[in-house]
Amino acid sequence: MTDLPPLRESLEAHGLLAKKSFGQHFLLDLNITRKIVRLAGPFEGRAVIEVGPGPGGLTRAILESDAGQVVLVEKDPRFVPLLTELDDDSGRLTIVQADALKVTEAERTTGPTHLVSNLPYNVGTALLIKWLTGPWTPHALTLMFQKEVAERIVAAPGDDAYGRLAVISQAVAEARIVMHLPAAAFTPPPKVASAVVHLIPKTDRPDRETLKRLETVTAAAFGQRRKMLRSSLKTLGGAALCEAAAIDPDARAETIDLAGFLRLAEAVK
Ligand code: SAM
């Protein structure tokens, strides 16, 4: 990677400007991208999928690592020529020009696969839900989100940020914030600060049917988060459902922990 031009020069050489509609805020400092890759790894020869490589700052750091296979999924076709320049002829790199929401990851890599991404903010949550609850499960995920979304993923009962995203994410994965970045670290800077979340899918994940019910229960409970559960869960069984799950019907959603929501999901059968 050392004989490549600096990222800023590559962008200028290809006449590329960031597009707002694609959520493009680039990391051009390789010290930062290398740190993210260190937090994501070691990969020990496993595959890595990077969504939204853009000009390739994170990609360069991934290619310097011990990743055995590197698959880039970029929606904006303008970046493909620039990304092609990163191919070091080791046969590790594949560039897929596609919408990551529509990609079938299982067809793109073999074996346990890490996901590493500075996510486009407009589809970040949708992609996370796809990777956490879909049919394909990554080995680990290291993802940059807006700070506010990162806090919603790792929130605990009683936190202002505690809600559906925390319950669903923590039902299937261990999640923690591993890095904070100010808006000024990006080109162009977004309006808000960012944070990297590292998630490791659990081995004892609820099955897909239970997860679906968990989504239904949390949607109802947090849809009216100031109401007592007997009322917000009325259409699903109200007080009787709460009692079947050993939950106080007068409690509010924000005080119920993951185990409580899992009992509610079981009881809603
Ligand atoms: N990884 C680069 C970096 O850190 O400098 C760029 C990150 S930028 C926040 C998000 C990237 O995701 C952009 O390159 C954008 O074109 C791409 N992108 C946006 N929506 C996408 C989608 N649905 N599927 C794949 N890539 C997408």
What report would you give on this structure?
The relative contact order is 0.11. Helices cover 35% and strands 17% of the residues. The protein has two domains: 195 residues, Rossmann fold (3-Layer(aba) Sandwich), CATH 3.40.50; 61 residues, Helicase, Ruva Protein, domain 3 (Orthogonal Bundle). The chain is α/β, with parallel strands linked by helices. Strands 3-2-1-4-5-7-6 form a seven-stranded mixed β-sheet. The site of S-adenosylmethionine has 23 residues, from helix 3 and strand 2.
Helix/strand layout:
Elements: H1 7-13, H2 30-40, E1 47-51, H3 57-64, E2 69-74, H4 80-84, E3 93-97, E4 113-118, H5 124-133, E5 140-146, H6 147-154, H7 164-172, E6 173-181, E7 194-201, H8 208-223, H9 229-232, H10 238-244, H11 258-267
Parallel strand pairs: 1-2, 1-4, 2-3, 4-5
Antiparallel strand pairs: 5-7, 6-7
Helix pairs in contact: 2-3, 7-8, 8-11
The structure holds S-adenosylmethionine.
- Range of helix content: 25-40%
User: From the coordinates shown, what is the CATH architecture of the largest domain?
Assistant: 3-Layer(aba) Sandwich
Which sequence of strands runs across the widest sheet?
3-2-1-4-5-7-6
Q: Helical element count?
A: 11
Structural class: alpha/beta
Please provide the count of β strands.
7
User: Roughly what is the average pLDDT, rounded to an integer?
Assistant: 95
Radius of gyration using CA atoms only = 20 Å
Give the tally of structural domains: 2
| Major sheet size, sense and barrel closure | 7 strands, mixed
Note the gap between the termini: 54 Å
CATH fold category name of the largest domain: Rossmann fold
